[in-house]
Amino acid sequence: MQSFGLIHVEFLAWAALWTVGLSLIAFVGGGLLGFAVALARVSGSLAVRAAAIVYIQIVQGTPLLILLFLIYFGVAVAGFSGVPAILAAGAGLTVYSSGFLAEIWRGCIQSVPKTQWEAAECLALTRWQRMTRVILPQALRMATAPTVGFLVQIVKNTSLASVVGFVELSQAGKLINNSIFEPFTIFVTVALFYFALCFPLSTWSRSLERKLNVSRR
Amino acid sequence: MSSTLSSPLSPVVSLSNVHKSFGALKVLDGVSFDVGVGEVAAIIGQSGSGKSTALRCINALETIQQGTIQVCGHAIHDPALDRRALRRDVGIVFQSYNLFPHLTVEQNIMLAPTCVKALSKGEARDLAREVLSHVGLEAKADQYPEQLSGGQQQRVAIARSLAMRPKLMLFDEVTSALDPQLTGEVLKVMETLAREGMTMILVTHEMAFARKVASKVVYMHQGRVWETGTGAMLDDPQTPELRAFIGNGL
Ligand SMILES: Nc1ncnc2c1ncn2[C@@H]1O[C@H](COP(=O)(O)OP(=O)(O)OP(=O)(O)O)[C@@H](O)[C@H]1O
Ligand SMILES: [Mg+2]
């Protein structure tokens, strides 16, 4: 039995790339879907608003692990067997991220003072123009720090993708451990990889927040 | 309802028996008054008497429960009211300026003309310069609102409204947040507008200004028009309530 060495670190580094890739899919997919849900959440139509609330509640109330199972096995039940793990994991994380990003962004949109809506309305702007030209640019400034902060959650939560057979950082750690059984060394190394991914993000998020507090513009 | 209010003698604004409640709180209790073309109407009264609410009803920011309001030919009480068409005719300036903080002064002014009237960037910029010179702030075009004093911000807010070429301007205590010197510069702008023939309705606590500039004074008390007349009414109040109000106010 060989012991923990460079080859394992290489394997972990390669798996870390998959973690990054999966995080990006979740962030882009979840961002697009979440943005649409956030807009629906502040829509003028009660029905659309209610639908968005229900969606957010369901997503936030379901453990990510169950979401992943539901999508993985749900698709199989629907007759498409052998879904690639990356698709199942990507879809699960996209849905998960959309529920949380929608709620973060709704908060930012609603924290723009009502008087800004009113001023824009009194200038005869359409609802869409009010949203895109007046409200969203201001909400965006407030949204950057918590959004980057949430990226950290996404990165860490990709570790659950192993349940649908996706080999990312954590799963790679498990695989190595199955063959050489040095759990402490292996998982400390895995943790260091996660730290290397997440630390820059949380530092960036904090500096964005500080900047925002200095200049409200 | 498309009544023809275009004859020069018919009023620009006409409220008739307007009732408005917030839940159980009755705020407007049968308010009626007219404002003619080129007139400057000052609404005065104690805090809570319904002045702001009346102004907001005129601009359809609040819905009324009873009565009729005609503004520049728009029937405000009509559920089918075209709000955007109304807002093209009516400008409003608030006590808290409500400039868009992420846009420069010039961009604040250019936004509505480009979005709503489909002016080109160049045309809108010329327009912005023109209205800014009207309020004496050409030099501030590229600044952000937070870089301006309160008085300057309020003049920008007026300029932003003027850029839509409204037929009627509404002002809700636009100087209440300003110290006396800055108040003066904003009132000067409003006086110029009045002299140029703009139809205006202003809610104000500035009695001297109302006396000097207003062609009509509406004194509101407990949600009703208690007394109305010309600026001279302030020197010769008919009701004890107005007498008491002026006594406190001056
Ligand atoms: N959106 C609202 N919801 C509930 N009550 C309101 C609302 N807006 C105003 N009111 C109430 O209506 C009454 C009249 O308010 P309004 O703002 O019209 O008074 P005002 O004459 O403008 O007073 P001020 O001089 O203090 O500005 C007040 O009692 C106020 O609390
Ligand atoms: Mg008021």
UniProtKB/TrEMBL annotation, chain A:
It is found in: Cell inner membrane; Cell membrane. GO terms for biological process: amino acid transport. InterPro entries: AA_ABC_transptr_permease_3TM, ArtM/GltK/GlnP/TcyL/YhdX-like, MetI-like, MetI-like_sf. Pfam families: BPD_transp_1. The chain crosses the membrane at residues 12-40, 52-73, 85-105, 184-204. It is a multi-pass membrane protein. Residues 16-205 form the ABC transmembrane type-1 domain. GO terms for cellular component: ATP-binding cassette (ABC) transporter complex. The keyword Lipid metabolism does not apply. GO terms for molecular function: transmembrane transporter activity. PROSITE patterns: ABC_TM1. Keywords: Cell membrane, Membrane, Transmembrane, Transmembrane helix, Transport. SUPFAM superfamilies: MetI-like. Belongs to the binding-protein-dependent transport system permease family. HisMQ subfamily. This is Amino acid ABC transporter permease. It comes from Azospirillum cavernae.
